Queue: 4 jobs
Job 1
Amino acid sequence: MLGIRPELVIGLVIAESVYADHGAELTVAALTNGTHHPGSLHYQGAAADLRTHDIAPEVVQHILASLRTALGDDFDVVLEDAGTPNEHIHVEFQPKQPISP
């Protein structure tokens, strides 16, 4: 995979705004790079990991809720590895309905 899906680019622009609204700076820790589980949407350019370790835990929870609302049902937003040095927000574009051509 050489790039990321346009929907994910839009999602990251929205995520940057959500982070800023909560006084945090967005850092994308992984896109198609890194090692992920087999079949991961990272390898399809449809997932991103967003850094949280420099953000207070209560703010991370507000960012999570805001991202879920702002990105809608076609994105999954999950806090992974909470409380560890690898904690991050995993965002993936995974539409629940087929996309029309």
Job 2
Amino acid sequence: MNDILEYKGYCATVNFNAEEEFFNGKVIGINDLVSFEGETAKELKQAFYEAVDDYLKTCEELNKEPDKTYKGVFNVRIPSDLHRKAAIVAATKNVTLNDFVKTAIDTLLNNLKNDRMLTQ
């Protein structure tokens, strides 16, 4: 499982390259590619902070919105049997399939947050 760094509301995934012996990371939730690296966890964290600050400064200079815009709509491909089971459970609970899926995602995210596996 990757760890997640957070700074100024931006999150980044973190990986360790055992062969080359360095850490690298990538800011997520934005339209641009912003990556960083370091030889130690401390260097990686500092590089992340600097990358976010530089990204925000660059966006400001370009008069560009830095955050990715989420519409709240996305397609999910699941096996037909899982789709059928979810539709049946939703119907028995007298909710739409959309509301059932929203609740399932929200429940999982809250559980992950409570397990300290998710920062936001």
Job 3
Amino acid sequence: MAEPKPDRFAAHRPIWRAVAVGAGIGVALGLLVVLLGRLLQHGPPIIPTVGVPATVGALLQLVRATQHVMLPPEPTPVGLETRTASHALRLRQLERRLQAASVDGAKFDWGLRPMLSQLAAERLRHRHAITIRREPETARAMLGEQLWQMIDGPSDEPSRPLSKQQLTALIEAIEAL
């Protein structure tokens, strides 16, 4: 006994049905326009008047039927080891930046100053509801002159290297905010 041949379009029947429905609606609209045109003594060409809506309807239904709902990707569990390794890597990067800033003022300007400025601005915003751009006088009073100069200091000329004590003082001042 011979096995029945599988229908290669069986899995896609709903898509083809949707396309057929769209084409049918398009043909119906096109014919309605042709009939209205004939009644009003204006005979539009039948092929484009029926074919364009049928094609557009079929394409719209094809797109609609083939769209899949995208589920958000499942979150990958991050274990304690991964977080610890990530923190250790970030701490090593920060340590290298601090070391470079104590040797080269330009490295402080490019690598450390933006990060410390952002940290100070976030501390002011979260703990005191002060935004540096909106309330510069209040922010300057809260930060103190040393931190204010670090944030708002001239960026045209490179800074001189900061000693470990100066870097420690800056970080402690930010922590105290």
Job 4
Amino acid sequence: MPFRLTVRSGPRVRHLTFPSLPGALEELEAQARALAAGATGEAVNAGVRRFEAGDRVIARIELAGPQRLAPSVRAGVDVRGDGTVSAYRGRLRRAPLLPRRGESVYAALRRELTTG
């Protein structure tokens, strides 16, 4: 069974499939870097509250697989409005993944999924 990558950016949703975890992780990183590069860094006023760029998630990239009904891997990254990226594991209860010293968010996600 393949790994499924779901890319949500604004109202657009795309689904991509990959035969292996390394290929899916490479595409996840490429998609996240492209979306982060396009982040505007603008705050949004929503009535009585103001949302700063770093508080808004402008894109979410989720990885699931290889099983279809109950995937053993559920993880992803959130791209924020200021261009920062944060990784997490889980789906409903997202547990943030913190990079170690000198490690990128993507390397932390790879480490967590290949060893954990």
